Amino acid sequence: MSKTQFRRYVKNIGIVLIVYLFTTFLAFVLDLREIHSENLLTLYLLGIIIIVMETKSFLTTVLSSLLFILTHNYMFLGDKYQWHPFSNRSFALSAFLFLTVALIVNLLVVRLQRQMAVSKKNAAMHKKLYEASEGLISIHGRDHVIEYADKALTELTGSEVEFFFDIDKNDENEARKWCYKNSAKCGHGEVEFPEAGCKYMPIRSNRKTVGVVSIDCTQNELTSEAEECVIALLSQITIAIERADLEAEKQSEADLRAREHLKATVTKNISHDMYPRAKAIYESAKAMRENMNLMENDEILEKLKKIEDESDYIAQTVDNLLDINKDR
Question: What is the pLDDT of residues 121-168, one digit of tens each?
């Protein structure tokens, strides 16, 4: 027996004792006021209802019911503090009705509490779904969307989740390939590949399958409600991925236009800068060719120096442009 089970048993016993002593005390007080024993049995029935709600244990309910019936039999039925035969029709009928009502109440309370637990779990799941869908709106970039989706689905299902895109025929996982090819879920609990440890669900975009998500079912079983939430979230994830791809495409087009604009601007600026320098070189060379015999040495050296400087500037500019293109 584990410590948790032991503590639960001790807790149930404590609840039974407290309710039993309190109910018996009230029954004793009411008996002094000459209240009929049938009404006292009803008081014990209320005690059983309290025990059912607090312990949620079928065995505890049965044992408590027997304890309460025997106590009523011994302390309050007919001659007090004497055992009365169970063959007494009145007592037998009361005891039977007592046990029947106690068991019915136990079943109803347990079922109601289970339904409340399921409803609470579903409400929490839908809250997570809403928060995840809301969070996807502010996520940009395909990688960031997938990272966020992985985290959101893991939190939603309580299981390990993995995304697969662009699955090809060489993929070693047959269930994953089947899901991608047929655009239908398969794997754990499904008709196809039911023995698989994961459930595979397609990711659809524009009426075609773009990927597959696998959900590990070895630790936590994926309920129908959780699966519906996963399908709803996958549709939101698909929209977010499409939006991210569209943004990336637009950004790529914007970058291309920006590069073209930069190229045109640089070409224009270089043209405006190179033209006067090239013209200066041409004019200096032409002047030297036409007036070489009439020019002084200092004037010739000045023309040559100008040609040298302008040529060096042009050569350096061309080298810089070549380096920029090389880096790209």
Answer: 878 878 888 888 888 888 888 888 889 889 988 988 888 999 998 787
**CATH architecture for segment(s) 259-327:** Orthogonal Bundle (1.10)
Distance set, CA 43 to CA 12, 25, 105 (Å): 20, 11, 15
Chosen CATH of 123-248 out of 3.30.450.40, 3.40.630.10, 3.40.50.970, 3.40.640.10:
3.30.450.40
57-85: pLDDT as tens digits: 888 888 888 888 888 878 887 777 777 66
User: Rounded to an integer, what is the distance from CA 258 to the centroid of its chain?
Assistant: 39
Length of the chain: 328
DSSP 301-328: HHHHHHHHHHHHHHHHHHHHHHHHHHH-
Task: Name the pTM for this structure.
Answer: 0.54
* Interaxial angle between packed helices 89-137 and 224-291, expressed in degrees from 0 to 180 and rounded to the nearest 10: 10
CA angle, residues 133, 134, 136, in degrees to nearest 5: 65
